């Protein structure tokens, strides 16, 4: 069993990598910016490097010694290569080289800028590199800096030796004077114990004098050469830069890396769901379907044999086999926030799909603020359902007496309870008439689909959750945040409902393509334009137009207060 689990995980890893790569490609503009920056940097490096020439010299350092061939000499312990490298880069060396080159004092900083000093590992070698735009000038300055460093170190060593010699000489002079005075007294002393004592003191003085003179002699015998030049600077014959083609190639590779890094950072901090799995985790339910781009037509099922129609049928079948929905056959379709275009389209087409399977489908438009379905769909005769026969209908109460019949083409027909503008929306949604309306699904052959305004815009959907406990969330992953989906799921669960799943869709960002598609639908009779909420102080009137093929199209015209 464990082996099977491991093999399944191993098979999923390539798919996860492919999904992550596809998510990174959502931010192509970041990758493109990174590539452009890399190419520009590579071009700048290639152009500037073409006029740069590098001259090099090498110095082997050594410590002062009286016997350079002594096998016990350990120069690597006497010399700190890090300190020597800093000394070579110091201003004192640059000032000495400037004097050799005949440069002004204000050019010392510019002279330092072109110098690089490195120390190859496990060696006593200092590698001097000088970059300049003129190859001859690069070689001349490299030599000058090398000689200046050698002179400075030799001067420093000799200064230290001079100080030590002075200190030893200052110690020797009083001892030698004391020895001379003692020698004069010994000549005047008679033989005896006093003379023997004086001779003993003189012997100690002589030993001290001998020791000091030996140290002085050793210091004077030291070879104070700080190092030897093992490679002199030569005039470079080619530029030091990598060349324009190589620079562009490296810049492009680095730019791709920067772009991918930027896309990954943007992906990590993107609040929108990155995939269907993110949506499923946020709502704690499956993604029942993903609608094709620009498929938010009012009615697709039964009107055209398209990919969108098949996707709606697939969603309806998945819901039919879900035990949580099959027990009660009540479905509430909502969107997170913004427009109701997508949720209305899903609700209408699911009702048509249920009707296609032989169910008595009833679509309830629970939008009592900007109702529009009766104008957008092909409706016909009005029937009187059970909920309207057993109760009196007060004026302004919803739902009213009428139930419309929607022609879904080859899929058949389904009922529509249109929304109506009411003064008190919460009271209408929680009324006994609304409860009896939704109870139509108690019939084994009936299915009720309710579409309500966005959850995060109004509380209308939450007022219906206790009676329509199965909720379907319709969202565009590009425009909704994961936090919004989590909040919707918590609100629905708190109201006693259950999220059956989600349906994702992707609308085109170009309004022109959408308008053209709707115009084409009107010409073919496969849909009608979405009605938008009328602005304040306006009203909507119907206009009938007869097309060239003899069919009639109903449209809406917004009439302002000035047109009345």
TrEMBL record:
Highest taxon of source: Bacteria
Signal peptide: none
Ranges annotated as biased composition (Basic and acidic residues): 539-549
Keyword terms: Membrane, Transmembrane, Transmembrane helix
Residue numbers spanned by region Disordered: 503-564
Keyword Glycoprotein: no
Transmembrane helix as UniProt keyword: yes
TM spans (from-to): 27-47
PANTHER family: FERRIC ENTEROBACTIN TRANSPORT PROTEIN FEPE, TYROSINE-PROTEIN KINASE
UniProt name for this protein: Lipopolysaccharide biosynthesis protein
């Amino acid at each position: 069993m464990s082996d099977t689990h491991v093999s399944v995980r191993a098979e999923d890893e390539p798919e996860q990598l492919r999904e992550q790569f596809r998510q990174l490609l959502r931010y192509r503009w970041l990758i493109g910016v990174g590539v452009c920056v890399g190419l520009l940097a590579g071009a700048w490096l290639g152009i500037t490097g073409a006029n740069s020439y590098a001259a090099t010299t090498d110095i082997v350092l050594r410590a002062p010694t009286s016997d350079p061939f002594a096998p016990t000499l350990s120069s690597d312990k006497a010399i700190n290569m890090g300190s020597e490298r800093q000394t070579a880069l110091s201003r004192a060396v640059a000032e000495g080289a400037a004097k050799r080159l005949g440069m002004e004092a204000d050019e010392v900083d510019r002279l330092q800028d072109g110098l690089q000093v490195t120390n190859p590992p496990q060696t006593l070698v200092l590698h001097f590199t000088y970059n300049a735009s003129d190859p001859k000038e690069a070689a001349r300055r490299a030599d000058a800096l090398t000689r200046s460093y050698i002179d400075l170190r030799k001067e420093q060593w000799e200064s230290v030796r001079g100080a030590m010699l002075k200190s030893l000489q200052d110690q020797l002079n009083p001892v030698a004077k004391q020895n001379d005075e003692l020698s004069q007294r010994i000549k005047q002393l008679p033989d005896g114990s006093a003379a023997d004592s004086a001779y003993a003191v003189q012997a100690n003085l002589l030993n001290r004098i001998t020791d000091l003179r030996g140290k002085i002699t050793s210091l004077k015998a030291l070879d104070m050469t700080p190092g030897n030049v093992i490679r002199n600077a030569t005039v470079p014959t080619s530029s030091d830069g990598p060349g324009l083609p190589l620079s562009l190639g490296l810049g492009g590779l680095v730019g791709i890396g920067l772009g991918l890094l930027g896309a990954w950072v943007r992906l990590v901090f993107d609040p929108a769901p990155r995939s269907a799995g993110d949506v499923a985790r946020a709502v704690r339910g499956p993604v029942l379907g993903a609608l094709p781009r620009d498929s938010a037509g009012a009615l697709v099922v039964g009107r055209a044999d398209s990919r969108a129609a098949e996707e709606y049928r697939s969603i309806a079948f998945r819901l039919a086999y879900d035990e949580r929905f099959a027990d009660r056959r009540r479905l509430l379709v909502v969107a997170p926030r913004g427009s109701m275009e997508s949720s209305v389209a899903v609700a209408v087409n699911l009702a048509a799909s249920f009707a296609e399977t032989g169910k008595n489908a009833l679509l309830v438009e629970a939008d009592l603020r900007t109702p529009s379905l009766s104008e957008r769909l092909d409706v016909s005769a009005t029937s009187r359902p059970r909920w309207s026969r057993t109760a009196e209908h007060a004026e302004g109460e919803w739902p009213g007496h009428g139930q419309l019949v929607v022609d879904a083409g080859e899929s058949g027909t389904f009922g529509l309870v249109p929304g109506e503008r009411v003064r008190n929306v919460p009271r209408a949604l929680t009324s006994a008439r609304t409860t009896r309306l939704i109870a139509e699904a108690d019939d084994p052959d009936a299915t009720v689909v309710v579409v309500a305004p966005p959850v995060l815009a109004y509380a209308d959907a939450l007022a219906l959750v206790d009676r329509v406990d199965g909720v379907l969330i319709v969202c565009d992953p590009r425009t909704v945040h994961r936090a919004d989906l989590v909040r919707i799921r918590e609100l629905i669960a708190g109201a006693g409902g259950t999220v059956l799943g989600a349906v994702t869709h992707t609308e085109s960002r170009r309004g022109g393509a959408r308008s053209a598609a709707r115009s084409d639908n009107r010409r073919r009779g496969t849909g009608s334009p979405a009605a938008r909420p009328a602005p304040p102080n306006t009203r909507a009137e119907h206009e009938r137009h007869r097309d060239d093929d003899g069919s009639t199209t109903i449209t809406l015209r917004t009439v302002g207060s000035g047109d009345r």
